[in-house]
Amino acid sequence: MIQAVVYDSSITGRFAIRKVEAPKATLLEALVQVEAFSLNQGEVRDASDYGDGYRPGWDFAGIVIEPATSGIGPKKGTRVFGLLTGGAWAEQIAVPVPSMTEIPEGISVTQAATLPVAGLSALYTLRKGGLLIGKRLLITGSSGGVGLMLHQLASLSGAWTVGTARSQEKAGWVQDAGADQVIVGEFPPIGAKVSGPYDLIIDSVGGDTLTALVPMLKPGATLVSMGYSASSTAHFDIHAFTGAGGRTLYGFFLGEELGRQNGPADLALLGQLVVEQKLKPHLSIEAPWTDLNEVAHRLLNREFAGKVVLRIGTE
């Protein structure tokens, strides 16, 4: 038996650490001893949709304790990081070899745990804009884990970016991440429109924010909708969307993107950027996993900037 996080609607906070059956790896899976995992708003918010007994968790970082019996993938004792579609918040997990890669020297397990969902989401949404040198980008939700990585990667790509933040303190973090301009306060203020139109807009807020973003696109530009922290419903004027011609509204879902991308290679790329200090994950809090309910509550209330990581076995 091992310990794992299980959703339980009958308790305060909804997440419980309970004894469960130890995982058994298939031919193409390795067993990983998890040392740390990061939290993402989507997995915390949507856990209730799956009901009692659900095992949540996407990001993980740890050590291979039993390599895949097929002989492929990382060997025993290798530090690895990656992501699952669920169940990563556990002492041990069975991981498909294509869902993880080795943690490079010079990166801590905590840093590695911040990268899979947030880093790949940032990388893949930016790729929707093609060659970014000299292009003008607008990124909402800039102070979140994905947002701060988006600004860093966009800056590396030669783009000119506008970010958003709810406070001056968070604006400072967005600026440090490479934003050329930061709009502070409730969105959308006049500043966003004045700085446009944009070649690429990446939105994680949804609702009225997405509605306001549509007219800010250049002809032929793309608006990537990757989340809805404010509302999952948006209404917009079709003419405002089609009037300039060639605009694209792209619905982004990381699970689907991974089917068309090289996940291990892209995770390795993100890790190398951290080694070279070109990408610096912003860690807002590191805590033992026994603090999960408190930390998850604060995450949903948007109290953190950047990433939140929980350590297994840390008291």
List its salient traits.
alpha/beta, Rossmann fold, 2 domains, seven-stranded mixed β-sheet, 11 helices, globular
CATH second-level architecture of the largest domain: Alpha-Beta Complex
Radius of gyration, Cα only, in angstroms?
A: 20 Å
Mean pLDDT: 93
Order of helices and strands: EEEHEEEEHHEHEHEHEHEHEHHEHE
Tally of extended strands?
Answer: 15
How much helicity do the residues have?
25-40%
Largest sheet: 7 strands, mixed
* Helical/strand content category: alpha/beta
> What is the CATH superfamily classification of the largest domain?
Medium-chain alcohol dehydrogenases, catalytic domain
How much strand? Answer: 25-35%
Shape: globular
Which residues form runs of ≥5 with pLDDT under 50? none
| Overall tally of structural domains | 2
The CATH class designation of the largest domain is Alpha Beta
Number of contiguous helices: 11
What is the name of the CATH topology of the largest domain?
A: Quinone Oxidoreductase, Chain A, domain 1
Q: Tell me the span between the first and last alpha carbons.
A: 21 Å
Tell me what the structure shows:
It comes from Saccharibacillus sacchari. This is Zinc-binding dehydrogenase. The chain has two domains: 2-114 and 281-311, Quinone Oxidoreductase, Chain A, domain 1 (Alpha-Beta Complex); 119-255, Rossmann fold, CATH 3.40.50. The protein contains eleven helices and 15 strands. 28% of the residues lie in helices and 28% in strands. It is of the alpha/beta class and 315 residues long. The strands form three sheets. Strands 3, 4, 5, 6, 7, 14 and 15 form a seven-stranded mixed sheet that branches.
